Amino acid sequence: MLAKRIIPCLDIKDGRTVKGTNFVNLRDAGDPVALAAEYARQGADELVFLDITATVEKRKTLAALVHEVAHTINIPFTVGGGIRSTEDVSALLAAGADKISVNTAAFDNPGLVSDIARMAGSQCVVLAIDTRLEDDGEWYVYLQGGRKKTDVRCFDWARQAVDLGAGEILLTSMNHDGTKTGFALDITRRLSDALPVPVIASGGGGTMDHFADAFTKGAADAALAASVFHFGEISIPDLKAYLKEQGVEVRL
Predict the structure, then answer these.
(1) 11 is known as an active-site residue
(2) pTM
(3) From residue 68, how far is each of 48, 61, 80, 127, 129 by CA, in Å?
(4) pLDDT tens digits for 183-211?
């Protein structure tokens, strides 16, 4: 059995790590380079770096900051935000990223997924989906950092993107983001059961039980969180030890 992964997420705005609730009310969470180094030291399996305002501000990801983080850590490193072309991808891979996360640009131009997969391999393409459960009981895709609703269902877009070459899905529930009430287990499980690629659960992790549930009930391959790690509420070594006790296979 493949080990389940614990992934801290650095949401970056103006060069600083920030964290909000339901994609709003952002507060400062510290220096991304120092946080990245600490997470690598604690035994995080991977690190995700998302320049959360790059798309809205119509600019590219902060490549210099990516370079600084990449040369501070020794774990796989995924970078996203403002990526619109294979040239953008090449620049970030050169700066030290191992994988590239695409969201709005991939939805607007699905061929981008195929282009990146052809250039760097499917294992390099992480499709980030921001999704919200609406009153009709369906999970819909949101774009531009959660600012723009679409009429496309999360499951349909995920399946299409995997067919195009996405090698992993980073699934963030906007309903759960920052609430610390637990991950969206139903939609996570649905994608995990149906798709041939790993699914990362994101949004809502607040206790060690929530992480265990993401793996056992949600069938996630990895669980991503931010504030519980940034503000010292859960340490990665303690979390992994707990998961091991619960029968979840993790790298200690």
Answers:
(1) yes
(2) 0.93
(3) 14, 13, 15, 24, 26
(4) 999 999 999 999 999 999 999 999 999 99
- Give residue 177's region: left, alpha or beta (phi > 0; psi -120 to 50): beta
What pLDDT shows up at residue 15? 76
CA distance to 119, 122, 137, per residue, from 116 (Å): 5, 8, 33
Tokens linked to 163: 């067919």
Which of 51, 115, 130, 177 is flagged as catalytic? Answer: 130
* Residue type present at position 199: V
Q: Please confirm, yes or no, whether 130 is among the known catalytic residues.
A: yes
Tell me the pLDDT band of 18, cut-offs 50, 70 and 90: confident
Structural domains of the chain sorted by starting position, each given as residue range(s) with its CATH number in brackets:
5-245 (3.20.20.70)
Q: What is d(CA 93, CA 234) in angstroms, rounded to the nearest whole number?
A: 31
